[in-house]
Amino acid sequence: MKKYIYIILIYMTSLIASSCSDWFDVTAPSEIRKDDHFSSVTGFQQSLIGCYIGMTDALYGTNLSWFATEIMAHQFNPYVNSTNIGLAYWLQSFNYTNTYTTPTVEEIWEKAYNVIVNVNDELANIEEKKEILDDLNYHIIKGELLAIRAYIHFDLLRLYGYGNWSQRDTELDEKRTIPYATEVSKDPAPQTIKLLLNDLNEAAALLKDYDPITKTKAASFYQEYNEEGFFNERTLRMNYYAVKALQARVYLWRGKNEDIVNALSAANEIITALENNIAINEMYTYCNFLSPETVNKSCTS
What is each CA distance from 12 to 2, 17, 23, 26, in whole angstroms? Predict the structure, then answer.
């Protein structure tokens, strides 16, 4: 009798354990599993747009565009007292350690690396699941992700790294400044500007022949991929020419002799595009990358 009771108890225990496992495995309606999210082209596209959204608000929605950096650069009339506008007053005074400025300085650092973590997560998945993506989406999405990573790291380097020290052109490659995070990891990240330039070079190579803004391919090429409008409004994203402009800035900032040549080369490519009527301010109207029925013969010729 005891033997049968033990068998029944074991069976019930395993059944309960299995049920509990399934119960704990339930995903909330508002959550998406990472494996599920990166199981489609749309998931990768949405994640990229999510990185851009993360760059707004405390970063390029305020502090890194029109507010904190502009005040620190004294682009506005000076604030004469700290009574009602404490943060702006102390930022213009370069006092970053009081109760007004410290939260803002820390928030910029935190939000920037939060975006970088999301970029690195998607970059890891884009290689692991490359077969999910067609060539166009792979080149555009990966190129933009690398450009975003370089863009944010460059601003962090300018804000939190070393200033204009002597021998900049020979020391910058070796100086330990900010961590350049290229993967999601708890280990210390390498700290070198070479990684930043590597990202930009790879981003440019990925985007050059696939970015609609370069007009390398006819508008008709994008029609079957653009039902949701993902390839519209290229001037609002890290497009090929934005990458070349950032390359020029980084090369000039490092300042080696060969960097000046490289910066000029990157800038001339943009200038040439403008002269050849691949004008950046008209890129987004190039056939508007609309649905097939709106593309006329002049767009596809």
Answer: 15, 8, 16, 22
